Queue: 2 jobs
Job 1
Amino acid sequence: MMRRLPLLVLLISGTCAVLGQRPHKPEWSEREFELENPQQQQQQPRSDDDIDQSYRLPTDTVPTHYSIRLHTNLHTGARAFTGAVDIHLDVIVPTGHITVHNRDLTIVSAALFAKQDDGLLVEFGFPEYGYDARTEQLTFHAGQQLPLGSYVLTIEYTGLLQTSSSSGFFLKSYVNDEGVRRYVGTTQFESTNARMAFPCYDEPLLKATHTLWITHTADYSAVSNMPAEAVEEAAGHEGYVTTKFGATPKMSTYLLAFGVSDFDVIEDGKQQLYARPNAIHEAQFGLEAGVKILDALSEYTYVSYYDYMPKLSQMAIPDRGGGAMENWGLVKYAETGLLFNPSRNTYRTRKGIAVVIAHELAHQWFGDLVGPQWWSYIWLNEGFAELYGYVGADLAYPNEGYWDLYTVENIHTAFGPDSSDTIRPMTQDATTPSGISGLFDTIAYDKSGSVINMFRTVLGDDNFRAGLKIYLTNRQLDGAVADDLYAGLQEAIDGKDVLPEGVSVKLLMDSWTTQPGYPVLNVRRNYDDGSVIVSQERFYADKRVPNDNIWYIPYSFASASDPSFDDLSSFDWLAQKAERIAETGAAADDWLIFNKQQTGYYRVNYDAHNWLLIAQALQKDPSAIHRFNRAQLINDAFNLARAERHDMALALDLLTYLANETEYAPWAAANTVLTYFYDKLRGTAHYHDFIVYVDALVGKVFDGLGEFVAVPEDEPLLHKYLKQLITTWACRVGYTECLRQTSEALSTAVETNTPVHPDVQYVVYCYGLKGASDDVYRWLFNQMITSKNEAERQLLIDTLGCAQDREQLTSLLSVALGGNAELDSLLSGERSRIVSAIYSAGRVGVEALFEALSSPVYAQEFVGRLGQGALNSVVSNAASRTNNEAELEQLENFLAALGDAVSADTVEAALRTISTKEAWFTSYEGVRSTTYFADFSN
């Protein structure tokens, strides 16, 4: 087991000086090859009565301005910092107490001053203070009643930069080209983490202006929301300077941001991009995209960003992990979300950067200029940013086809968890820090963006833009609730005959934002007279139960004789449980499709004959139906069958048209279906029948790709997406030609020491490793460990997990646990990523983990390095990949070997997963599906 460690460690013994770059999200969409899981991110609905309002601050004082002074020695890696803050506040209800938030800061002293009308401060004493650790509230007791008026509370304190999380004021590092570790201080204050850097009123509505001074070593620089007004020598601190920033606009505390580093910067007009010096050459696309997207969104909203802020800075944080933060004027990103190297990064990285930049820049309006009055309305931030991430990227790069990805990456993603009976509505209260963090889920992002897009389409984009301008202007520099948005949209459409008489935007949108879940629109045709009965009910993924939910559903339809999919100018509304449409204009032998381009956030189910007409039309000419609707039909048919609303055979028959499908969106929807059955059937007696089915769908499309390892310079983005999906399936099920091309391309790369084109790296490396020698594996490992590009490192880790040699995988696992200087160059998330890459890529990896971790000493070392959660994850993921008796026996032996290294709850959950998987084969869905595949293969 351990003998393989030198195989990889020897590779890096002479290269440690160039290591230390940070990991990122994988370069292919994780959604593309993951099973849609309705159980993910489910949350129990809560009523306001269940919310503990004691976590909210008292309302008798409000802040007006913060003057913050920080001193840090972070350039040495030191965590300790000192700070002082002057909180300018108004007492609006006489009180003897001033309560603010604080987390993990040590208070040194406090003084209170009254502010006279002429601005002079009069000392009001040194208040005593108390701290409630549960609510994180720091209360200062004035010793007397404070009359109405203005005050300044000055607090001196100390704190520690975070190193175990990327929250508050935290410390990261990188290794420069001389092999020296350099440190970076940065911030992440959303949602309740500003209180980790300075005592403050850490609630979104309690906005104030902020000035910031940071004292730091002179060979570092500081950046913040506003431009620096001065950089002065720090009195009494030789070798230090103080960077003084101008006052921000009125804003929430969670939007304050700063960074202290030795980064380089590139500029374009009023925009800057900061990155570590040995990555600044990868910053050009991020800066270009920032300029294009900010201009596009300023024009779209009719509200210029530069009317409020003098500059926009973007900053790439090494080893941040993932994500980004929309701080007003200083947007922070993980390196994988901002840095792009065309010789090392894929089309997916570039797309991801464009969309995440657009997402964060959309927040400059939705969240920064106008923020939510309380976290209940976080969808006013994240829903808009999620939608305009795609809209903004599409406006800036109209030839890329980014909008084609919206439906399959957002609407279909939201449908999964939102079909649970325990999911929350869009508007939902929470007060605890953990409860507030829990609101940043797929409902806030994917569902909310989809619902907003539905109303953007229904009201008309021009009307919607006009309404947004009213909303943004009316609520600028203030908080908002959903009714403020509705009012702006309503004003924009009044007198334009957009909605039915007596129907308001609020009435319509409230039905989508205040209740959980979403509807299925049932369409039942009368083929004799051309009429249709449409009805609605809440859709559940796994059951049918009576429910009283009513949504105001906008609907439109196209037919074979009137395929008007591009006409989204008019809609009708279903505002009750059911109604009859007297005439559709569709002949009896015409197919009928509702929800054109799937702009509506709901599923559609048809009577069996209309489904048959649709399937026949797809077989004859897929292009007769819009590609977004083809994706919709696949996703709906499968999930409706799983919910027993029609037969699974109908859905599987429908998919057979894919042999002639060359658009990505329908294939992305189909990938979810195929992945579902692959996970069920791999390793079982039914697998061969399933492979025959996959072959019938994939074969013709794969053959049309030809030499897929080649990447033409003018290859369209969506073709790249399609090519990776198809070749992944072709290689996965063992196509000889697919494996030949990947093996030869990898061999050539090794022989010439030239990496393959980034856009085909995943498929070539992952499947080229099948049967690869140790020398080939070493070469690929060396590509990863010497790379300074986080996104590339992540992709290469994932491909290394694809090895089919158990000892190669065991060696890779040893790297994840290694503690020598070379292996310490692994970034914080890369060790656990190695483990997930090993069990995710195939059964061989699961067995390699079983073999290694069955040793008590090794299991203890594993937990010591990666934590108990990592071992629990191995157990749960191994269970989800256990498909037959032999694999079950291996799992049972592994659990026995682990003994009490894992909890009884973890073991019980694993066995429950096995039981559920076994039960599927005797369920109606299981029997119907396996019978279908058997009949198909014969």
Note: The longest helix spans residues 284-301.
Job 2
Amino acid sequence: MAQLLRGSYGFNLKHAVLRPALLNVPRLNFSSLNGGTVNTKFKSRSFLHAVPPGGTFNVGVRSYGMIVARVIRGALRLRYLVLGGAITGGVTLNKRYEEWKDGLPDMKWLEDIFPDNQQWKQFSKDLAVVTKSVAETIEIDPRLKQLGEQKVAEWRTWFDSRLDDAIEAAATKENQQLEVAKDEIRIKNIVNAKTLNTDDSRRKYETLQQQNEALQTEIMNVQIKYQKEMEKLEKENRDLRQQFLIMKTNRKTGTKKIKKSLIDMYSEVLDELSGYDTTYSTADHLPRVVVVGDQSSGKTSVLESVARARIFPRGSGEMMTRAPVKVTLSEGPYHVAQFRGSDREYDLTKETELAELRREVELRMRASVRGGKTVSNDVISMTVKGPGLQRMVLVDLPGIISTMTVDMAADTKDSIHQMTKHYMSNPNAIILCIQDGSVDAERSNVTDLVSQCDPTGKRTIFVLTKVDLAEELANPDRIRKILAGKLFPMRALGYFAVVTGRGRKDDTIESIKDYEERFFKNSKLFQSGVIMPHQVTSRNLSLAVSDRFWKMVRETIEQQADAFKATRFNLETEWKNNFPRLRESGRDELFEKAKGEILDEVVNLSQTSAKKWEDLLTDKLWEKLSNYVFENIYLPAAQSDSFNTMVDIKLRQWAEQALPAKSVESGWEALQAEFNELIQKAKKLPDHDGIFDNLKACVVDESVKRHTWEDKAIDMLRVIQLNTLEDRSVHDKQEWDQAVKFFESSVKDKLAHTEQTLTEMLGPSTTQKWLRWTSSTEDQSKRSWVKSELDKIIQSDTKHSPVLSYDELTTVRKNLQRSNVEVETDYIRETWYPIYRRHFLKQSLLRAYDCRKAYYLYSQGSENVINCSDIVLFWRIQQVIKVTANALRQQIINREARRLDKEIKAVLDEFSDDEDKKVQLLVGKRVTLAEELIRVRQIQEKLEEFINALNQEK
């Protein structure tokens, strides 16, 4: 290739590679002054390409010699630019292919489909031939032929002899010296231009200026043409990739998976670090591109140009970016976007899905600023993939404001400043400083903030937006100073000028790109040399940012990996010292283990014996029903003249109304009690882990609250209970004895409860006072006086009714007054109720003793000899409790245990997705230490995986 170029144009490959250094050397204007002679010496060897052999340029020979020199130099400069760009393009294309090929999985079955290395080499040779043919189409200006072949050969020989020295000098000169030389030469040009007094010299000078502008325009056209050719080749490359994916889909791929892209792996590392350290300080040590700027300066538009899609919502003068948006750009066959944690992919080639994406971004932003806030620190993460995208991670921040409106929160301005400083303070963050070119530089707020965070400018890239508006409004010299870093009090690695549209919401990225190219092609700023070619277009900006991003990633990732290795070692040592016999398990694993144990206990419900279920249900039923039986059935019937009739009425009313519902309630309580008992038994096992106790208790309580008995069970029980209560005859002696025993135990329990109530009312007895050294309260002493009077009434009439008459109440009050005890009528009634209850229960207990052996008399119908209606009542109640307990047991085994199992599974599923609930219920040093250790291991593994992939890409 080098021989080909030297043979065609007289220079080697080395000259083309160093082309940018030569092109940045400023132009010199030479003129004759009244026929005089001007000798010019150059202090820097960087400009030897503009000086003839001997080091002195004699201006007095003839002025047309100056014109010839300028034209030849411009033509040769154009030739080097085109050929250098073509050669560099070929190398870049080959490199891109190698990167793409290395990123593919090992698919040896495609060797028969894709070309081999020899074929690719032949393709490279063909590309070189095409490059040569393209270069040959650009001919030197025909006007040069008029100067004669001999003159051209002389200049070519002179240029080749001095080119090596010029390359060496250009490589050693600093940018600052070049800028000083540029200013000196501009001053000389101005002086020379002012000395052109004659009409002929002035016309020659204007002709030179027109030729210069024409050459600048031609350079821009060639650059655009070359860029379009590159895009065409990239499109063909994308088509090949898509065909590869289609072929891969149509064939069996086995167990191999396509590798993750390098930038996706890096983004996952950032996400892991953000989740590990809630303060986000750990992740700050890794590079990312932070996009900052004043509000409405064009930050979002720049990011969209880099991403090649209109992915953000827009508003006229309204703050739209209210939260940090992390965008991970990566290359892929299809142009799609996806939010972190979401499975949906948005097709960025369809306007409908673009609109849905922008609406989703806006909804997420508004959701993050609830509670009266204007901006939020909650990060919205998304991934954008597409052909030709530069791989990097960008964070778009809310724009810096200088004035707050009435609808903003009071701390909005300070919050934005703190958030921006926080992200820019990361020593490895690349600051993409966006400045609106259409406004006065004195109105900028962001540049001062950037200069504070990065005073040396080692990680700042300056971007001047809206250059199309700036061309009309601003002084070109002012724009030149901005892009040279001489206007703002800040430093930067590079300065770029971009055009991101005409302010129209409906413009597509393609139309914006075309508009940007047309603007710079025809811009006076570019043609006059105010803006250099490498400083324009969003594409050049994205390339520069991506290169800097990956350079910083390679410099910092190893340090982070070493830091996490040390953290992991410390955590593992602490775990071994505190929990030597346990394996570190995170909350998710512990929750799954607890879930299995809880479901095992539900299964154990079905293994409970029928006898145990019936005993448990019987106890629960009588515990729930006993008070109603005594207070609403037995006692009212005992006070009635027709005991059996009253009992029948009360029992039927009870069975039709309250009894079925109370029975279901008792059944559910029995089911809950048995389940809790199984859990308590599990706690006593040797392998029980107490870390699950809080979780199990919460799951059981929540399941119990949600579980309800089947509605049809109440109707079924009502029919069974009504039919059972219709039977009024005790069938045999065994049932009679069971009824007597049931009656005695029930009365004794009630009597014990009544005695306890009286003890609380009357206070300790005389014996207790002496033995326990206790005394009665004033109220208890007064109750004792009332009791003594009421006992007289009961002793005088053992069959007294439950209610005291008015005369009896009056007599008791008068008797107490004689003893200087003043009480009210209600006070006497309150004391009478438990006293009479105890008397009645004692009488009932005596009848139970009499009826123990009275079944023979009952079976013979001799009820006039002994009255055992109490026993029959309690036998009927006992029978209804038995059949109810049996029905409830069948419902529990057949239906309710499974329904409870479903409720518990539903609660467990909800808890499994609720991280806050896990943190609340699974607590302790064992859990927190294991969680941290697992997370550190995961981050370290991702870091090592990323480092390995990064090294392979090198």
Note: The longest strand covers residues 325-331.
